[in-house]
Amino acid sequence: MLADSSIVVLALPQIYRELDTSVAGVTWVLVSFNLVMALAAVPAAHIARRVGPGRAAAVGLAIFAGAGLACAASETLATLIAARCVQALGGAAAVTAVLELLPATVGSEKRATAIWAAAGATGAALGPAVGGLLTELVSWQSIFLIQVPIALVAAVPILAVAKHEAATGVLSAELRQTGRPHVLANLALAMVSAAIAAALFLLVLLLIEGWNLSPIGAAIVVSVMPLAAFVASRFDHLVSSARARAAGGAILVSGGLGGWALLPKAEVALTVLPQVMVGIGLALVLSALTETALAGRAPQAIHGGWTISARHAGVVIGLLALTPVFTHDIAQQRNDAIDAGTAVILDSHVPPLVKIDLAGRIESHLEEEKGKVPTIGAAFEPLPEDPEERSEVVQLREELQDQLDRGATHAFSPSFGLAAILGLLALIPIGLSRRIEL
Amino acid sequence: MSAAVRAKVLVGGAIVAAIALVGIYLAAGGTSYVPAKTQDPCKHRPWRNPEGLDQIAEQFSLSALDGAACQLGVSRETLAQALATPEAREHFTKRYGIDDAELAKAIRAGLLRAIGDAEDAGALNPLLAAPLRETVKSIPLDQAIELVQNARSLLDSAESFLGPAQGFLEQLLP
Known about the structure:
The structure holds two protein chains of two kinds. Chain A has helices spanning 4-9, 12-18, 23-51, 53-73, 77-106, 109-137, 140-145, 147-168, 183-210, 215-222, 224-235, 242-261, 272-294, 300-346, 352-368, 387-425, 427-432. Chain A is mainly α. Chain A has two domains: 4-169 and 178-330 and 410-432, MFS general substrate transporter like domains (Growth Hormone, Chain: A, Up-down Bundle); 331-409. Chain B is built from eight helices and no strands. In chain B, helix 3 (76-82) crosses helix 4. Chains A and B meet through helix 12, helix 13, helix 14, helix 15 and helix 16 of A and helix 1, helix 2, helix 3 and helix 8 of B.
C-alpha cells in the first residue's frame, strides 16, 4: 500500500490510452487515491484504536483487495477513480493499524518505526519498476490484481490478532495518551513527498510519452532509483542526526530534479545520475522525517496516520500543482516542435513531390495523435527507393524527430524545476525544527 | 569521525553533488535544448538559386506563404499546417478568428510578395512581373478561396495556387 502510488505511475500511460482520457484526467487515478488516503489516515487510526488494530487491519485489507478487483474490472475512468477511492479507504485503515501492531511483532517501538519508515521509502522507490514490468508483461489491470493476493496473504497473520482481540476485547486503559503530531516533520514530509511524487510521475511520462520507451524499458530505466535507495538505506545509520539526513536527502532530491529540468539531450543515460541522487535522497529524507514524526510519540497508529496523511497530501499537492503546468507546457512545446519540424520540411532539399507526399502523411499522423507528443517515424514509411532521395528523407526524419524530442523534453523542464523548488522548500521546516534530532 | 562531523559531511556532500549536477547539465546546454524558433515571416528570405520550373515554383510558394503568414500575423509553418487539410484550415480560422475572405486576401498579398521575391532573385523578368501582378490581383475572391480549399497539403495548395502563375512563368521565362 505504501508503494501503491508509485506502482500505478508506470501504468498511467497505458490507462491514458486505453480509457481514452487526457493527461489531466489520468492524473486523478493517482490524485483520488492519495487524497482519500490523506483525509482518511488519521480518522482510520482512531477507529483502529477503538475497534482494535487487528480487526481494523483485517477489514482494511479486505476492502483494499476488493476495491483492487474493482479497479482491474473498470472500463471507464470514472469507475476506476471511484474504485481507487474505496481502495484508499481500505489502505488507510490497514496501514495505520499495522503500525500499531508492528512493535509487538518486531520487539520494540523504535525498530517498528524504523521498519515502517524504511518500508515507505522502499515502496515509493520500488513501485515504478514493478509497475512497469507488470504493465508490459501482463496489462495495467494486473497492477491492481496483484495487490489482491498480497493483501490476502498479509491478512492471514492479522486475522489471528483480530481473533485474539475479539476474545479479549480492547481495553481503553491499554491505550496510551497521544502526544501532539510533529507539525514540522509532517510539513517537511508533505513537501518532499510532493517533489518525489512529481519526480516519479513526470519521469515516467517523459520516458514513455516523451521519448517513446515501452513500459518495461521505462521500468528498467527507473529501477536505478530503488537500487540507489536500497544502497543508501544500508548506510543511513552512519549519520545519527535525523536532521542532517532529512536536509541532505531533500537537497539530493532537489538536485536530481534540477538535473532532469536541465537535460541537455533526449538521452536515457542522462537521467541516470539524477535518479541516483533522487533515490539516495528519498531513502534518507523519507525515513528520517517519518522516524522523527513518530519518535517518542504514542500511539503509533495515530502518529503514523499523520505521516501517511502528510505524505499523501504532499503527493496530491505535487500532482495538482504541477499537472496544469505540465499539460500547458506539453501542448505549447508540441506546437513549437511541430512548427520547427514543418520548417525543416519546408526548407529541405527533398524533391517537391516527395515533400507533398510527406506533408500529407505527417499531417494525418499528427491529427491522429492530437494532444499527445507525436512519434513521427511511421509517417516516413515506406522510404523512397531512390538511394539519394532515401538518404535525404532519412535525414529529414532525423531532423524532425530531433525537434520533437527537444519539444517533449523541454515540456517537462518547468515542472521538474518547480518540483525541485518544492523539495528545497522542505528545508525550511527541517531547519526550523529544534526537536527533529532523535 | 564524530557524529556532528558526519552530519556536516552528509549535508555538504549533498550540496556539492546537487550544484555539480545542475552545473554540468547547464554547461552541456540544458537551457538551449528546445525546439528551433521559427523565423519571422515578415522578414525577407533570400531564394536559394532556383534551377528549373519546379524549384522556382517551390520558392514561389514559400514566399507566398511567408507573405500571407506575415499579413495574418502567424508563422509560415502554422499557415502551412493550416492549408494541409480542410479540417486544419477550419481549426486555424476558428482559432485565429478570421474568415475565408481575410484568408484569401492574405494569400493574394502573399502571391504579390512572391512575385516581387521572384523578380529580386532574377527568376522572373521585371518587365513581365507587372502583368503577373495584375493577374494575381484580379483573381476573384471565390477562386482564391477555392484554390485554398482544394489544397490537399501545403505544397499541393502551393502548386494549385501557382497554377495560373506557373502558366505565365512557362510562357515568360526564357
